[in-house]
Amino acid sequence: MIADTPGLMDEIRSRFAHVETCPFEGRRIFFENAGGALHLKSVVETSAFHAAIPDNPGRVNAAGTRLQQIIETGKADMRLFFNAQDGRVFVGESGTELLFRLVRAAALGTEAGGAMIGSTLEHPATASARARWAGITGRAVIEVPHDDATGTVGVEAYRAHLTPDIRVATILHTSPVTGMAVDVAAIAAAIREVAPAALIVVDGIQHASHGAVDVAALGVDGYAVSPYKMFARHGYGVAWASDRLGACAKDNLAGGPAENWELGTRDAGAYATFSDVVSYLDWLGGQVCDSPDRRARLEAAGRAIAAQEGRLARAVIGGTGNLPGLGAMAGITLIGGNRVEGREGVVSFRAAGRDSPALVEHLRQNGIRVHTRKADHYSGNVLVPLGMTDCVRLSFSHYNTEAEVARFLSVMQALTG
């Protein structure tokens, strides 16, 4: 959709800062989007504007009134982005911090006893929170093993471990290491069949910039994202919690609203920059569909993004022009195999006989920004079972091009022969 529409890619790239150049290193191709996507120029401008305002939202003056309106607009845009039919949306320190809060509220707010379940694919944002609060509440932890070969975890793997006494479940929407998506809706439905009272929390941090989010269709209770990975900026996270999860006891000011998830004065700039992201997705959706409905345009943007990134994944793995892809290069092991279907913005690989940090540095010297993932507390759950100490992660977004992929493959071809 995007690459096939004349001029659209140029229009898309014009809306982002530092598309082709790093302010510190000069020209480079940015394939480190899973570590933090490019920022919209509108986000940069909005952030600067709000950083200079001294007033608090809600005060009885023009500034306070306008800031409160910006927050309310931001909340409406967040609800639209999540397709939230109930519950509340709110901001926090980061996506990881919000996932800890959601898991904590679920663990403390459900019936005593039972178990908490998640998979070995998960980022520590949910895995560590699950382990911590299972220990505090005296619950067993059920870990569903992911498939090393495919880099994901399926509904049947979850189904084999489900019991009626599950109180809390966590699901990773997309792995930031393997890049493979998980069928959240199917897993959530399977959990509901066996343990209907369970509260289900989803880590959507990697998925959010690669396709539409629809919590109503997923049938879950909590979902968190990190805006800096979806074209906004660092410094905050955004979450949605269902009415059922919101009814659980949580940190509140004494005498304050019991349904309130937020503590302290809010940064109106966080809400405003999320509105910038939603406005961009609305614009993009309008380029590829003619629906008058704003949510339909967001969904169309998600499909267009997924289609463009699928095209890039096929080029990275299968090659482009006369350049072979990573899947055909000698000594290259692709994490999660050579599948394109289900892959969202990430291709991680290991080159035989080559130190991954050294390869990342070589690519940097050739103007290509990628990243090393090590078998540490972030990625060891994926790499250790594969017998790997590290790997190279190439991560792309819809504003990347096949020409950029071709440049990466040419450098890799020269290395691998």
UniProtKB/TrEMBL annotation:
Keywords: Lyase, Pyridoxal phosphate
Domain Aminotransferase class V: 29-256, 325-408
SUPFAM superfamilies in UniProt: PLP-dependent transferases
GO molecular function: lyase activity
Pfam families found in the cross-reference section: Aminotran_5 (PF00266)
InterPro entries xref list: Aminotrans_V_dom, PyrdxlP-dep_Trfase, PyrdxlP-dep_Trfase_major, PyrdxlP-dep_Trfase_small
Record bears the keyword Membrane: no
Annotated PANTHER family: CYSTEINE DESULFURASE (PTHR43586)
Identification of the protein by name: Selenocysteine lyase/cysteine desulfurase
